[in-house]
TrEMBL record:
UniProt xrefs under InterPro entries: CHCH, CHCHD2/10-like, Cys_alpha_HP_mot_SF
Superkingdom in the source lineage: Eukaryota
Key words, A-Z: Disulfide bond
GO biological process, one term: mitochondrion organization
Domain CHCH, first and last residues per copy: 104-138
Protein's recorded name: CHCH domain-containing protein
Gene Ontology cellular component terms for the protein in this record: mitochondrion; nucleus
Biased composition, class Pro residues, residue ranges: 21-36
Compositionally biased region (Low complexity): 1-20
Stretches for region Disordered: 1-46
Length: 144
């Protein structure tokens, strides 16, 4: 089908419609300004120290409660101490003071050390000899 011609004139067109206007964007709200920084010199030293101590006590208490709770669930903790004896210590001969006994061993060792140090002036060792004799009397170890 052929097109119809309107005699060289174009039909009047309707004026273009304006798009409906959307409301303008809302103004951007900014965050409130930051609070003024408190001057550290304004607080008392005792107050901050007290707060720190209180915080430490609270932390320690919470830790103790948590340990108790874990011990209740898992059972009490056990600690085993192991002594490792080196070969040199095991091969060393027993000291002479062991013949006197463990109770007076320290006094005997002190007396022997004094004798070794002041061999020429034995009067300086009288105190140690008196302590050793008193220990022997009190512990019942005689004739050693």
């Amino acid at each position: 089908m052929p097109r119809r011609s309107s005699g060289g004139r174009s039909a009047p067109r309707a004026a273009p419609r304006a798009a409906p206007r959307s409301p303008p964007p809302a103004p951007v709200s900014h965050a409130p300004p930051p609070a003024p920084a408190s001057a550290s010199s304004g607080g008392s030293m005792l107050g901050s120290l007290g707060a720190t101590v209180a915080q430490g006590m609270a932390f320690g208490t919470g830790s103790a409660v948590a340990h108790r709770a874990v011990d209740a669930v898992m059972g009490p903790r056990t600690i085993q101490h192991e002594a490792v004896v080196s070969e040199a210590a095991a091969a060393a001969p027993a000291p002479a003071s062991s013949s006197i006994g463990d109770a007076c061993g320290i006094h005997s060792k002190a007396f022997q050390d004094c004798i070794n140090s002041y061999g020429s002036d034995i009067s300086k060792c009288q105190f140690y000899l008196d302590m050793l004799n008193e220990c022997k009397r009190n512990s019942g170890v005689m004739g050693a």
